[in-house]
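Figure-free illustration: sequence to structure, shown twice.
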Amino acid sequence: MDKFQAMQAFLRVVESGTFVKAAESMQLPKPTVTRLIQSLEDHLSVKLLNRTTRRVSVTSEGAAYYDRASRLLGELDELEASVVASRSAPKGRLKIDLPGSLGIGVIVPALASFRTKYPDIDLEIGIGDRSVDLIGDNVDCVVRGGELRDQSLIARRVGDVHMVTCASPLYLKANGLPLHPRDLDVTHTLIRAALQPSGRLLPFVLAKDQETVESNGRRIITLNDTNASVAAATAGLGIVCVPSFLVQERIGDGSLELVLPEWDAPSIPIHVVYPPNRHLSAKVRVFVDWIVELFAAHDLLQRKSTLPQRTGANEVPAAGPRAAFDGAVPVAATAN
């Protein structure tokens, strides 16, 4: 029996919950993983796992063994990584999952610099806003927006998505320019975002000085994708509150205009998240560091964000809230 491989197989079975997923993650046949676990149990003279046709669960002895084994293998990985890192670059497959709009609009376009710096890392990227099972799906890390609800995960806050309220000139000409958030409930249509799969509407909140107003709109158009929300606003269907990086070009070319710019919309914190009880490998560490650097250099993901200025008849003043804004309140939401 290869005791080291048997320990690895046991940890993978516990973390993934099935022999099949453990075998896939180790790129081994399922019978091989089964034999490794059986050999480990025979060697220890203790039952580590309870097996049924539907599920695998850990015995009390198995849970204790898992805690010690995961720490031991983590320390061993760290030792090897420190030696390898001193003479070679990180390499291997890195499986990550990114939120839709943030991934497409910010992260993916910048990945060329990551590939140039770390050419031996093979990227496997998922794009979407579904909830990912990091352990079960064998995902190394995810980038997510909003306050974290799963406290068992390890996260590093890397930036903030700042929200702006805007509408098309066509809509504002037809419906008038609101002077206070309360006006939104009287005469205006709000394009609202719905969280999936719950369908819960994200709050439409604006704050100024000590006053905070949550608006519902006289009429509502609900969409579950922020890119679609921007398209709806550009088409003149209503007023929308979306991430600034999605609308900076449209505000710059005049197809969208800021609404109530002196009122701040809540910002959304962005985290890189990875599973607990798993050593942060060199390839994950360099990706996290790269994300931090990317967001630190990205104007529209920082505390003070600027929007492009237009020239001509529709020129926006260079000073004041239209030139800079500061998101103030994190919200429990998903940044698409």
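We now fold a second protein in the same way, so the two outputs can be compared directly.
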Amino acid sequence: MRNKLVITLTTVYGSRQYTFNQVAKYLLLIFIILAAISFFVSNALLVVKTDNLSDLEEDHQVLSDNYEMMVGSQQLYIDELKDLSMSLSSLKSERDTLEEENIRIGELNTSLDNSLFGLERLLGMEHETEIDPHRAELLTIEANKRLFFLHSIPNGVPIQAIRISDKFGPRIHPVRKKRVVHQGIDFKANRGTPVYATADGIVEFGGFHKSSGFGKLIILQHNFGFKTYFAHLDAVKVKGGEFVSKGQLIGLSGNTGLSTGPHLHYEIRHMFTAIDPEPFLSWNITNFDSLFTKVKGVKWASLKEMYPLNQHSQLSQ
């Protein structure tokens, strides 16, 4: 028994013994030693492989990051090329635009010279063969001066009428049958015909004016003491206190108040005095000076001291 190896296995069913001779014992011992060596060697190799795998994963991550950086850089280059291409296209477009602008400026200069000569004729000023900057400035000031007064003082017709049915002056009133002074002009027009302001101003009154017999009436205040009256209207399109501009729609013609038929009664007053509107109807930029000789009772001479009128004399000094 000394040279035998006895292995006892105990289970729930009992114990069993196995015996090995000396050779088997050595073989088993060698097997156990080899198994232990194999276990430790395998563990060592596993640790090495694990470290190598970690290194490979890190290298893979670095490569992946580098790849993404390369892709991003490539996309950045593509975007920059697109921007550069767009910039070149924009520059080409701007160059073409500048060339067209240069051509247009050349044409505009020629047109401007012709326009200034035309403005000179329009204003009735003495013609000069050459228009220098000083002459152009004088023409511009004169045109602006006239436009200022044409917007400030009533002028032009207030309505596209069929005809003028009654003028300014003494007459027999068609309703009262008494001889009175007709203080305006009557424009025969269909009911609902648009009525326009004849100068810039402010609405003094807009509504039904029973005591005057004007029916629906609009009174506009203008510069330099002028007023305009628009009577017998069918509708009033403005309210008291509103600012209006020349040519603005202010009402519709009608037959309200003491009236025998659809028409517009139009008056121009200066300092509460009625003035014949007829010279004002045809007054414009080409016959600008005519009004100051045709219309009496207004001290036009004092207007020469006012700012837009005295610019010409200031520049001449």
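Summary for the second example: The helical segments are 22-123, 133-152, 278-281, 290-294, 307-316.
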